[in-house]
Design a protein that fits this description.
278 residues; Rossmann fold; seven-stranded parallel sheet; two-stranded parallel ribbon
Length: 278
């Protein structure tokens, strides 16, 4: 099987200043790709650039651009800057994401909108702006979703729907990309040791914690290595472990049983809380 070589290629990673995005950037840096990392946080972006510069050791460039992917004007300015400086786009990884947790009825509408605009429309804006350049280079377009991208659970009504939408978008663009010579892929990471997960665990519902209690947390580095292998082999759907595949298979093939199991866990957790509060 032929494998993609990223030496000298222009690779854009949104959300590339921390977590999975930074881990992916490190994998591309090892291959001496010309990296572009995009993030809203100037401080994290600066620190990430130093780390990546140390890996490339002047054998490739690292460009850090401050932009909010949920802002169309900032996205267009970022893509224009990249093309002016590097003259091409070979790979685009849509990894930027945020999370808010809580019951749907309790969450502010602003939080629901922010997740939609960043996690889904942000990927739309960047992909739309980069598409002509990816077409020109016969490049790769990829999306970082989540196990939450095919599994809706209590407490994640702001985070999960945009991740579901990324799967639908990737399936549409996979077909359209064939006409324009663009390879499309999507990865579904499980719970991954990132700042986002740590924030989630501190702010989510007790029932949500109970549902994920037996799920093994993987490192961002492991996700990035699996992701890189999948990209090199032009896989469409990329999974990180057997459990992620099993959960999807179980939910698709035995939805009634799956719902009974998850609802049983929720009932047990609520009973535990009631006993604790007596």
């Amino acid at each position: 099987m032929s494998r993609n070589d990223y030496h000298g290629k222009v690779v854009i990673i949104t959300g590339g200043s921390s977590g999975i995005g930074l881990a992916i950037a490190k994998e591309f840096a090892k291959q001496k790709a010309n990296l572009v990392i995009i993030s809203r946080d100037k401080g994290k972006l600066s620190e990430a650039k130093k780390v990546l510069d140390g890996i490339t050791n002047d054998n490739a460039s690292v460009l850090a651009i401050t932009a909010d992917v949920s802002n169309r004007d900032q996205v267009n300015m970022a893509i224009n800057t990249i093309v002016e400086k590097l003259d091409s786009i070979d790979v685009l990884i849509n990894c930027a994401g945020i999370i808010s947790c809580g019951r749907f009825a309790d969450q502010p509408l602003d939080d629901l909108e922010k997740c939609l605009f960043t996690n889904y429309l942000g990927a739309i804006y960047v992909s739309k702006a980069a598409w002509p350049w990816l077409k020109k280079s016969n490049g790769q377009l990829s999306f970082v979703s989540s196990v939450a991208g095919y599994l809706g659970l209590i407490g994640y009504s702001s985070y999960t729907p945009p991740k579901f939408a990324l799967g639908g978008l990737a399936e549409c663009l996979r077909m359209e990309g064939k006409d324009d010579g663009i390879s499309v892929s999507i990865i579904y990471p499980p719970d991954t040791d990132t700042p986002l997960l740590r924030y989630e665990r501190q702010n989510t519902l007790p029932e949500s914690i109970a549902l994920s209690k037996n799920i093994k947390i993987v490192s961002a580095e492991k996700v990035a290595k699996i992701y890189m292998k999948g990209l090199q082999e032009n896989k469409f759907e990329i999974y990180c472990d057997v459990n992620s595949r099993f959960v999807r298979w179980m939910k698709n093939n035995f939805p009634g049983l799956f719902n009974n199991i998850t609802e049983g866990i929720i009932r047990k957790e609520r009973k535990r809380q009631q006993m604790q509060n007596r």
